[in-house]
Design goal:
Length: 196
């Protein structure tokens, strides 16, 4: 069994144990870009037959990207819309209807409907933004070395996007991590530098 499979199994075991105490469980995955949050989140949702929501769907529209907003740690995510469309109905275990944000066209998609699930995964940078509040039963923080991060971003997005991440998005993310400490009070810190 690979180290990655062992990791997934250990998280599934944590969730299974938590389900002995609660009727439904929310797993939060925050961490550095390129660390594998989407990969692990999707695998967990598939294994546990749960819903998976991506913080990438809540990018902040250009019209809201003011210097004041971006000076706030985690301010480059549209957490107000996330709270309204996902967090509030999730806490009440109600159906969720939300819209993906199209970063190219700067518009919202048609609404997507999700029935309540026993397990919900929320993955992405800024998932533990303090503005969102106490939402998670299990918290995972994913990290990797700076060199591996840039290698993965370039492999995934190309050299031009890697340069943009290095210049703009990684510094914003590191500011959020330094200031809000999403790596504190978590159930697991997962370093994926050598996992894949």
């Amino acid at each position: 069994m690979s180290e990655r499979d062992q990791l997934i199994d250990s998280i599934v075991e944590k969730v299974t144990n938590k389900l002995l105490e609660k009727d439904w469980v929310v797993i939060g995955i925050d961490g550095r870009c390129g660390s594998g949050k989407s990969t692990i989140g999707s695998e967990l949702a598939s294994r546990l037959k749960g819903n998976c929501f991506h913080m990438d769907d809540f990018y902040l529209p250009l019209s809201m990207r003011t210097p004041e907003r971006l000076s706030v740690p985690g301010g480059n995510v549209h957490y107000e819309r996330f709270i309204k469309e996902v967090a509030i109905p999730l806490k009440q275990h109600e159906p969720i209807t939300y819209r993906h944000f199209d970063t190219i066209n700067q518009c919202l998609s048609e609404p997507v409907f999700f029935s309540p699930s026993q397990v919900t995964v929320i993955e992405g940078a800024y998932a533990f933004n303090p503005a969102i509040g106490d939402l998670y039963d299990i918290k995972l923080f994913m990290t990797l070395s700076p060199q591996k991060q840039l290698e993965r971003i370039e492999a995934r997005n190309g050299e031009k996007k890697r340069n943009e991440f290095e210049r703009r998005w990684i510094p914003l993310e590191e500011y959020y991590i330094r200031t809000c400490r999403p790596d504190k009070d978590v159930d697991m810190i997962i370093d994926t530098t050598n996992l894949w």
